[in-house]
Amino acid sequence: MFTKMLMAAVLALVLPATAPMTATAGQHDLDTAEGMAKVMRKIQCSLKDGEAVTYWWHGKAFGRRMGMSDKYLFDVEGMNVRHCGTARDKNGNYGYTLRTREILLYKDKSTGEVLKAWENPYTGETVEVWNVDNDPVNSGPSFGMGRDGKPQKFPGDVIGDRWWFTSAIPLFYTNVLSGEYQKYIGGQYRATEMFNFFGDKESLMDDTVDSANVQVGWVRHSDWLPWMEMAGRDGIIYMHTAGRKLDDWNDMSDTMKDQIAKNYPKYTDPPPLDDDRENVTSWTFFKKKMEERGGPEPLKREFPF
Predict the structure, then answer these.
(1) Model-wide pTM > 0.70
(2) Of all residues in the chain, what percent are helix, strand and coil, respectively (each to 5)?
(3) Which H or E element spans position 237?
């Protein structure tokens, strides 16, 4: 979820910079595809093959329905552990692949405890909570080239010693939890991922620094999460969060580290660099787990008489 959209946000934008990122001695040359690939790689991970880095973020989730005020539903806290490997295209051009796995916890808005059950304020029913456990969320290879085959331009603004850029990525695709008649009756999955990335110019441009200092703001709005059991009711859920690439894995909250130790031990490390498994999303994960339980429960019919 977070990683796939982060990768798209970093690599797909071609916005003009307020001030050029002009390279000097000892800095990456952004007039070359290799220089751009290395800068973007430093935002994502590290220039050292196999060196793991971790993104961590937290915030709040809200519900929105027509004719009602928005509801503060619960808190969210996420992490993504990742690393990169060097790649070369058929012409020998420099690029990289990204291998990651990610967690998103849903937490009680009053106590901060990780939710196991949640009372849905829209239905009055208590439902089981399914935290995000997406392994893997991989991407690449990427080579610092734009769609026109030319080196990318830095996708944002640079003022003084700071850089930043922003992007909104709308999604509309087949919902794996729906049937085969989606063309006729709907059932597509809709979401928008909105990112703001920030950092210091020095760590990004210095070619002796392997990983850039990055802060991130992440907003997501989408259809209701499947475990909320909204059964087609109108409305959306949106999440508003902020975080950063950590200096050390242990800089995460005690809550997240405790959950990883108890329930997600593999998340101390990213997937192997040669991992070629199909990516997992919250929806495919939910479908797999439901099938392991014997399939979804039938919808209860409600009659007006």
Answers:
(1) yes
(2) 20, 35, 45
(3) strand 236-245
